Amino acid sequence: MRCLPNCSPTRPRPQRRIMVTHPNESASAPDDDSSATAFTIDRVFDAPVDLVWRCFTEKAHVDVWMLPERFALIEQDADVSVGGKWWSKMRDQSDGAEWHVGGTYREVVQNQRLVFTHRWTKTPSGGGGSEHLIAIDFEARHGKTHMRFVMSGLPDTGSRDGHREGWAQTLGHLEQHLATLAEAAR
């Protein structure tokens, strides 16, 4: 199994699995045929939806939080518009290997929805891989943001579980960033 930066080798798991990795988060694989190739993370952020949206769409914020554990950002950029491209280069701090990923925005609805493709273009084992789809929905509720993150089109359960773990770590960094912003505003 090829291991991506947010992937750790795992054994195949049962088709239906729910894990709670954070008090404000739940993650699951769907019950249908896509269970081996998709996952969902639902999370609540104690921040207004416009701030969470800016954290996903503004370079100054993305540079701070959008990495899984043990990775450092080399550089990234994004044109957050339908048809716009995004890309990121990162370094695994444990072995110095570079990982490059990018994609294209398919849907952008301010403060509500982001849909974009995700494809590894450089990994330690070579370049390229299959293209995946990420859809993120944002909903304002009582001053907080309810976010649903869905990643689909993954090649197998190992990739699904590794990406789910990496995104859970990354969203934990977002929560820390939002807490830092809240503290600075006080």
From TrEMBL:
Annotated family: Belongs to the AHA1 family.
CDD domains: SRPBCC_CalC_Aha1-like
Transmembrane segments: none
Name of the protein this chain belongs to: SRPBCC domain-containing protein
Classification via SUPFAM superfamilies: Bet v1-like
Gene3D superfamilies the record matches: 3.30.530.20
All residue ranges annotated as the Activator of Hsp90 ATPase homologue 1/2-like C-terminal domain in the record: 46-178
Species of origin: Oceaniradius stylonematis
InterPro entries reported for this sequence: ASHA1/2-like_C, START-like_dom_sf
